[in-house]
TrEMBL record:
<keyword id="KW-0106">Calcium</keyword>
<dbReference type="InterPro" id="IPR011013">
    <property type="entry name" value="Gal_mutarotase_sf_dom"/>
</dbReference>
<comment type="subunit">
    <text>Monomer.</text>
</comment>
<dbReference type="InterPro" id="IPR008183">
    <property type="entry name" value="Aldose_1/G6P_1-epimerase"/>
</dbReference>
<dbReference type="Pfam" id="PF01263">
    <property type="entry name" value="Aldose_epim"/>
</dbReference>
<dbReference type="InterPro" id="IPR014718">
    <property type="entry name" value="GH-type_carb-bd"/>
</dbReference>
<protein>
    <submittedName>
        <fullName>Aldose 1-epimerase</fullName>
    </submittedName>
</protein>
Length: 267
């Protein structure tokens, strides 16, 4: 297993990464990340690419300028394995590489999907970089792909909650409660046209999430002890048409995105 530990210069922040996945971010010994194996979700973070959202209603087929792709929920990037390119005390860079039309085993098959293999008609290389400072954790993504390749991208981290249903997500001059998010169900609750949200808690560190390149968020949970705050390029259910073509970005050849996670306390 590829395991990396990063420590901030003042040693008050510790980040642990396993096979490219953020499994721990501790600030002053307080864990901020949902722990795998506990109630809520089997992961602690992942990426959604090249599509966001379910595809079953489209028979798992997505039309592209280079032909039809077979995609399950949230795409095939999560089915690929990260390789570690480099790491230091304060940062680490991981990579996933895909060759066009290569069939990738679908981990949802056969229990949750009828599709055994997934594919995409474009080559791409995907980089994920972690950088820890005394105040924050920056996670950067770089996509290298064929010019004008259509894609959606989402980052899907899960944060630990205290289980009292009293946390609030603040953004766009609105307060969103955990019960409201749970009621939103599997389609997740969207926060559109914003680059920042804050998770406000009764105790411990609050969390600010600022983004570059995403401009939208989804909020999802089914339990009171975990919350996924997901930066996304587009919300897949917009205008009543799932995965409409207008929701896809077009690659510039190299596209970059950032997520800045900052723990803070209100004085």
């Amino acid at each position: 297993m590829i395991s990396v530990t990063l420590k901030s210069p003042d040693t008050t922040s510790i980040v642990k990464i396993e096979k490219g996945e953020l499994v721990s971010y501790q600030k002053n010994n307080e864990e901020l990340i949902h722990q795998k194996g506990t109630l809520g979700w089997r992961n602690s973070d992942t990426e959604m690419f090249p599509i966001i959202g379910p595809t079953e209603s489209k028979n798992f087929r997505i039309s592209t300028p280079k032909g039809t792709a077979i995609q399950d929920q949230h795409g095939l990037l999560r089915e690929l394995s990260y390789s570690l390119l480099k790491s230091s005390e304060y940062d680490a860079v991981f990579q996933k590489k895909y060759i066009a039309n290569t069939f990738i085993n679908n981990s949802k098959y056969p229990e949750k999907s009828t599709e055994k293999g997934l594919c995409w008609p474009y080559n791409f290389t995907f980089f994920k970089k972690y950088e820890i400072t005394n105040s924050s954790l920056k996670i950067s993504f770089e996509l290298q792909a064929e010019n004008k390749m259509p894609f959606m991208l989402g980052y899907h981290p899960a944060f630990m909650l205290q289980g009292n249903l009293d946390e609030i997500v603040q953004s766009n001059n609105q307060d969103i409660s955990i019960p409201n998010i749970i009621e939103g169900g599997s389609t997740a609750l969207p926060i559109l046209n914003t680059t920042e949200v804050q998770l406000i808690k009764k105790n411990g560190f609050n969390i600010s999430i600022k983004t570059m390149g995403f401009n939208n968020f989804m909020l999802w949970t089914e339990v009171p002890t975990m919350l996924c705050i997901e930066p996304i390029t587009a919300y897949p259910y917009t205008d009543g048409e799932l995965l409409s073509k207008k929701l896809f970005n077009k690659s510039k050849g190299i596209d970059t995105f950032e997520v800045l996670i900052t723990p803070f306390k209100i004085i």
